[in-house]
Amino acid sequence: SKLITIQENAFSMSSITKICIPVHVKTIKFSAFEGCSKLTEITIPSTIKTIGKCAFKECTSLNTFFYHQN
Fold first, then answer.
1. 19-28 in b/e burial notation, b at 16+ Cβ within 10 A?
2. What's 12's DSSP letter?
3. Nearest residue to 40 via CA among 23, 20, 69
4. Which of 9, 16, 30, 34 is most buried by a 10 A CB count?
5. 13 pLDDT higher than 90
6. Which residues lie below 8 Å from residue 25, measured CB to CB, with a gap of 6+?
7. Are 54 and 34 in contact (CB under 8 A)?
8. Euclidean distance between CA atoms 52 and 61, whole angstroms
9. What residues have CB less than 8 Å from 21, skipping those under 6 apart?
């Protein structure tokens, strides 16, 4: 099976530094990455339909955001 939803608080407060969301993901839920203060880079595909409120709240080091169109 393929991951289609990143659930609420899935990576909240984790030490991840970079993430590339797979193309089959459609939804990033509420606070999925909240408080990931070491997260510097995220890549999101155009297949994402919904990004929940506060999904990237307090990601204070986030400085690179790539949006890839298919």
1. bebeeebeeb
2. T
3. 20
4. 34
5. yes
6. 3, 4, 5, 6, 45, 47, 48
7. yes
8. 20
9. 6, 28, 42, 43, 44, 45, 48
pLDDT at residue 23 greater than cutoff 80: yes
DSSP string across 17-54: -EEE--TT--EE-TTTTTT-TT--EEEEETT--EE-TT
Residue with tokens 């880079």: 41
- Alpha-carbon distance of 50 to 26, in angstroms, equals 7
4-13 own/partner pairs: CB under 8 Å, 24+ apart: 5/29, 6/32, 7/32, 8/32, 8/52, 9/34, 11/36, 12/36
Q: Nearest to residue 33, comparing CAs of 23, 49, 46, 20?
A: 20
Which structure tokens are listed for 3?
């991951």
